[in-house]
Specification:
alpha/beta, Rossmann fold, 17% strand, binds S-adenosylmethionine
């Protein structure tokens, strides 16, 4: 009898401890979601996620858009990359820029879904990424099409500005798709936008896709728990990204909202593609200029 009541007491004690721990985690997360996790810790987690996510059950090849992984089978990888390449072609026509474009940079090139379409367009294609495996896969895909001008640029997630030193020339086109929503916070994404501007020649073009906030809570930018929110972390109201880009020195030309669902079977998210130009004679802004409303 004595043993039974001791065991029951211990069980109850264990339950209370477990419950207290869970409550603590929930309260901690709620507070962090409100006030925001420190930026450095989010950046560190993003590095872990994109390099070692596999150890935590994340299919990194799928999430990094590798050919024939996850949903990117049966020609879908090729098709989505081509669709986005056609957006580039429209931009070049709209902006009346000469082709071939010659040099391009892709921020977060993943498995090369976009990059492979540029092999006839550029001599050098810089892929900037925080994952070595993705850079190697992108290079492999480019080489399989006979292209040897791929330049992998590995950066640490905490130091995106290192790209300014590592890319040895100013380029004529900056590309970034399916990455902004994964960046660890709006301030960080602002920094990348400033870097994009600084990496371009005057007259250079940019195509940046963001996830946009449309007033519904599920599209609101996140502030904590990168591992849980990685692929939907950062978003902007459309006007905010437009104004931010202008303040940085871009001339936004037009925006395309997520195409009709039948063209985009792979996602159900709110995406906005911004098409921009770095004006001729534009100088690089000295300081990043953030606006970020508290939404
Ligand atoms: C969803 S994949 C997109 C790949 C490619 N852009 C596409 O559209 O197929 C996200 C990519 O962004 C990279 N990435 C994540 N955080 C990054 C950062 N801070 N700077 C550069 N690349 C980053 C990941 O390693 C991964 O290659």
């Amino acid at each position: 009898m004595q043993i039974l009541s001791t065991s029951l007491a211990m069980l109850q004690k264990n339950d209370i401890v477990k419950h207290a721990k869970l409550t603590y985690q929930k309260v901690r997360l709620a507070i962090l979601n409100r006030i925001g996790e420190p930026s450095k810790s989010l950046q560190k987690d993003s590095g872990l996620y994109w390099n070692e996510g596999d150890k935590h059950g994340i299919d990194l090849k799928d999430y990094s858009h590798w050919r024939d992984h996850g949903p990117f089978k049966d020609g879908r990888w090729e098709a989505l990359g081509r669709l986005q390449y056609q957006m580039f072609e429209k931009l070049v026509t709209f902006a009346a820029v000469e082709r071939p474009i010659g040099s391009a940079i892709e921020w977060g090139c993943g498995g090369g879904m976009n990059a492979v379409h540029y092999v006839g367009e550029v001599n050098r294609f810089y892929g900037i990424d925080i994952s070595r495996a993705n850079l190697e896969e992108c290079d492999r895909q480019m080489r399989s099409r006979g292209f040897v001008g791929f330049r992998p640029i590995l950066i640490e997630p905490e130091k995106p500005e290192d790209a300014l030193e590592k890319v040895k020339e100013k380029c004529r086109f900056f590309l970034c798709t399916f990455v902004y929503e994964c960046l660890p916070g709006v301030e960080y994404a602002n920094r990348v936008t400033k870097i994009a501007h600084d990496l371009l020649v005057p007259g250079g073009l940019a195509m940046i896709q963001i996830r946009y906030y449309n007033g519904l809570s599920q599209t609101r930018p996140k502030r904590a728990n990168y591992f849980k929110n990685a692929t939907r972390f950062t978003s902007y109201p459309i006007d905010e990204f437009w104004i931010l880009s202008e303040r940085i020195g871009f001339e936004p030309l037009y925006v395309v909202l997520v195409p009709p669902p039948e063209h985009y079977p792979l996602t159900g998210d709110t995406y906005a593609y911004f098409f921009m130009r770095k004006p001729e004679g534009s100088r690089n802004a000295v300081h990043p200029v953030a606006i970020n409303r508290n939404i």
